[in-house]
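Quick note —
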Amino acid sequence: MLSKFMIINENNPYIEQIYLDWQNDHLSVSKEWDNYFTSLPDNKSNWQTTKSLPVDSDNYVYKQGRVQSLLWAYRDIGYLYAHLNPLGPDHGPDHSYIRNRTFDDYEKLNISDFGLHENDLNTDFFSSKSISPKKLPLKQIIDKFKAIYCKNIGVEFLHIQNKKIRKWLIHKMESTGNKSELYNTQKKIILQDLIQTEEMEKFLGTYFIGQKRFSLEGAETIVPALHFLVDNAGNHGIEDIVIGTTHRGRLSILFKILNMSAEEIFSVFDDRPNPGKIEGGGDVKYHIGYETDHIHEDGGSIHISLVSNPSHLESVDPVVEGKARAIQDRKGEKGRARVLPVLIHGDAAFCGQGVVTETINLSQLPGYRTGGTVHIIINNQIGFTTPGSHGRSTLLTTDIAKMLEIPIFHVNGDYPESIVHVVNLALAYRQTFQKDVIIDIFCYRKHGHNEGDEPSFTHPYMYRLIKKHEGIARRYGKVCVENGSFPGDEQTNYRNYFKSYLKNSLENERKHEIKRLDSSQGPEWEDFKNRADFKFNETVSIGRLKKIAAHITSVPEGFNIHPKLQGILKKKVRLLEETGQVDWAFAESLAFGTLLQDSIAIRMSGQDITRGTFSQRNLTWWDVKAD
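Predicted structure written out below.
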């Protein structure tokens, strides 16, 4: 179709020749061109060739080309004009979520900038393969593309050169209007998640005054996002999810997504000092890991593990990838598609900590590939006390990810249905292409960095806006009243019921001994304690070692090993045969051999790992005569 071409002056001779051929014989051109020329208005016969080839701005073909340019501009930079900030389009020059945002630097989406005029708005043009009907008045086409690319979702994907991925994303977004039609039951689940998260955070702030909890308030939509991610994962054949997350919102995620009881959470806040406790105390509640089986409504289940993390938040990223990779390898050939790593980041940390970039850079290497990670950014638009304009040189925190072909979905955190749509789209993308995907949720931080911090010291204007801003549970509650999915009186009853549940849970926790948190990370880790006390067989016969040595030093027939390396291997075998002794490097290789004979898998990673930093290991050989 014509949409495959950029119609500009230089293309006119080619198009005119095709048109002349078509006039003589309709079968002489492709089906796409035949359909296109057939659809032209009655004045198409006035299109004549000319030696000077001036641009006829009233020509329909020229106008169609201008329309296509406009639509590609929406796909390219629509995210710059999307309504992403729940606090408004801007909140002060020092707090803008887009650094040095000067719109004069960017292409406009005005029709006049594309050679189109007001009188073209009622003219029918071709729009997109994925939009039905194919031809619409220009005004309707623009309205559709604004809703797809400039509403509550902004998408960056034209840095991706893979045409299959581009076509897939365009079709998925444009065929649906970039939104999902949710059932009333699904809308009710979203609001219940928001109410529970809001009330849990408020309860902790009321009954555990002065204790740090790194509240999720202002970003509560993370919980329904994860809820729908977990529920939908089973439909894609995913059996395990490995999550790494920051301090902020960790307790709400433990409660709502990993089904940790309220009593268990309260017991951590009520923790009594214990000088002999190995793990210590302090803010350990924000570091703990947990595991659970999430049960779906249809009776199916999916295993979820939340990995423990240090205060250097993003350090957990490669740990999550490593754990996910290990589980995938245990599951065999299709393990990549059956195990999903999910990383939850803060906006400042995502672009500020190098380990994020390093982890993403490893994502497509054979030794580290995990079949794609879903990255979710809690974009508070501030890092501790630093706004984005002072904390990064990039336009957006996600720009570092554009070094790879990773689609980036920006979403307004005040629109949970849009977030659920993006989560489902991101999951489908990951399972289809086995690549990373980023969901950047623009929200805000209701309190300071922690509950003991006063953020208005450094950001008075921003926090005046936050103080006046209605919470997402209340805002979405009104939406549910309007659409009839969750009437107002039922919302009030549900909120009161949950408040009573929290009070009863606290009373129960303070009256009875609560089982301590199990952060063992699953049955495979049960034998690993705080010290190296696992049992193993310390003795291996000399005969077994000699067999292993002979095997790992035998050069296959026809293989041209490096002469120096062959000499080194012969010396190692001779030392073992004659003296029964080995050097450290050969001892390591023999140890690997005994483990492999016992069907114990070995995974090593790192630069020069097969050769060894000092050329001591040489577990991989290269044919010196091969190309």
